[in-house]
TrEMBL record:
First-listed, main subcellular location of the protein, grouped into a coarse class: membrane
Residue ranges of domain Guanylate cyclase in the record: 587-725
GO cellular component: guanylate cyclase complex, soluble; plasma membrane
This protein's record includes keyword Cell membrane: yes
Molecular function terms, GO-annotated: adenylate cyclase activity; guanylate cyclase activity; kinase activity
Protein name: Histidine kinase
Biological process annotations from GO: cGMP-mediated signaling; response to oxygen levels
Annotated CDD domains: CHD (cd07302)
Keyword set, alphabetical order: Cell membrane, Kinase, Membrane, Transferase, Transmembrane, Transmembrane helix
Organism: Acetobacter garciniae
Protein location: Cell membrane
Bilayer topology term: Multi-pass membrane protein
Highest rank taxon of the organism: Bacteria
SMART domains attached to this UniProt entry: CYCc
Amino acid sequence: MASEEIVDPTIRNETSMRRVLLHLMLPFFLTVLAVVAIAWVGYTSYRTTQAGVSRLTHELLEAVQLNIGQEVADYIMPAVTGNQVASGMIAHAPVQVQDRVFYAYASTVLREAPQLQSFYLADEQGSFMLVTRGTQKGLLDRVRLVSKGTSRVFHHELYDEHDTKVKEWDADAKDYDPRTRPWYADTNGVNGIKWTQPFLFPDDGQFVMTSSVRFKGGDGHTLVFAANISLNQLSAYLEKIKIGNSGSAMIVDSKGRIMAGRNLTQQARAAGWNPDKMVINPKDEPVFSLGYDHYRVRGFGPHNVTTNGQHYITMASALPRYSEGWVLLIAVPAQDFASFGRQSSRQSLQFAGIIVVFSIFVGGLFIRQVRRTERGTRQLATQQAQITLESAAVRQVAMAPQLFDPSVEPLVLTTQLARVTQARRASLWRFLHDGAAMVCEESYDLTQDIHTGGFEMGGPELAKFFAAINEGAPFTVGTAAADERTAAFERLVMREIGTRTLAVYPVSGPKGVLGMIALEDPTLLPHLQYFLDLTTNIAGTRFAAQQVLEQHAAQAPAGQAPDRPPPAALAPVLTDNMLMHVPELETLQGASIYSSVAVLVITFSDPVVEGEQEVTALITLINQLAMDVQAIAAEEQLFAVEVAGHRMICMAGCTAAPDPGALSRVADAALRMRETFMAALAAADLEPVFTMGIDYGTAFGGAVGQSPKVFNLWGQTVSLAELMAEGASDPGVIQVTERVYAALRDRYLFRSRGAFFAPHLGLGRAYTLAARR
């Protein structure tokens, strides 16, 4: 018998037992547990019902109280905040337009806030203006107290919702003086909002309070602004609110007078339209009368009262500060919250909750199994997709032309490395100067989809990092800033884009480690190792070939032809602000467009001098620097050098035919000028006070002025070069644009500077020119 046909009966029995326990015993146990739990809840629910109902009643009343309090605050607040806003607007408005500001504000607010009835504005001289609602809906009545002859009249102007005057008339004012009215007189000596006592209008049944504020106008006159707010709508809200089955609410002030509540108009009529007599009547409102008495004795809070053999719960609470000491009274029958139906519903809900919990638990077992199956399926699909991605990456690398040619940039290597490992950035670094420095041959940012390179780093602070690479073993650091081996690399390279994790794979050659592959924030999986080994071997072949080329270049005989064709010689001429330009300048006519202009802008800080001796020394130094610039410009065959205040503008490539060597000559000139300036300033015991910027592209220029003419250059290239100079991080730095870096990266060393913003162009990237390779 074959071994795969042998069956162990012991294993089979154990499997059967587990299946029986899982499918029979566990559901039975859960069912018994559910029955016991339901019985226990039924037994304990009776004991906890009374306490629960009482607690629920108090919580419900507190919630209703908070809701009503908020509604009252929202109802009254427009009158208070409106006074503050309007007084501020009128106080700061010119005297000539104070009335228009008042009318505009009052008309707008009356159309938006239905609880507000009218607005007043008066001063200490007896002037008076009023905006109130008209008798017809949508109409506003603007009233002004004016003198006509020996009498005073109210001049009315009626406006519709489109602010169009539809009618005007005069009414006798008799002896009306706003200064004698309570809303004006009560504000004397009061700093803030002052409320009047409520008053009734028998004609329309409106129950109104007035809030007023005193302030100084722009002309120094004392003004009083007042707003009338109706309490009828607040009473309508209290009548509609439902508390339990038959509960209700009422608002009284500190003296027991009714401010809002049920049947407000009937109570006002019974009191003879006298607000002071509108108090709680024990015959009409016995429950509220008892609740108010409990409040006066015991203060705010819930209280139990009994009247006519029926139990009630009353609650007294303070309303917001806008309400001048108002008290909210709530009364509700206790039986509204203690019926058997409510208790039965509560128990049913508990039973249903228990059953649902156990059902969820049982269903959770099945869900867990399904999720485990789905998780395995997803992992399998993810692995399959990763294998497909890696296979495609290998094909892309294999199909790349001239993959092992060091003169061709290895774009495909970094691109596929970043995509396969999902790294934020993948880069190839090669050792220089016998391992004392490293240069970035190629770097690819997956998020921004850009390739960069040409950065050089070295120095004592990177010694530990270089030593870790030279050990030849790959290593990964979760937080590069916290590891002493990678802290310097994180500060110089990774911090620019905010990456944390670093994976380093040394690249080895015939004579040891030649460089490394750096992956920032990668997703490293075990099965990716073969792809990483493949790319490190390819990079090692490229680096070895690059070393051979550099050795051949170092052994080339002296006098070998330079790497750029020498341009035609240009004779320097000194004219006005041009340190150097072409002899044909006087014959140039109009303006020309140059397609490949290289512009170098040097910006100097303004010097601080004291005394004639320092001025003489500074002029001598400046003259020396100018002569040095002339000499370097002539040797590098620049087109022109212009002086403009504390700036020098050097340019090359201002020719009809494109000049391919213009940018290289400007870059060499910038490096030489930087060294010359640094040496001259150090000899004069001065700090570096200059920055440099370079851009390359299209510009237009021409000779301007009369003889001697001056050549000038304009365009985006000049602006960006100046922006690079002004935005350089440190003195003595040469900052360049991305197109300069793209054109010179194979012959010069750069450092990434980061992103910058140019007006009308948006975001771009800047780089620092370090040296020639």
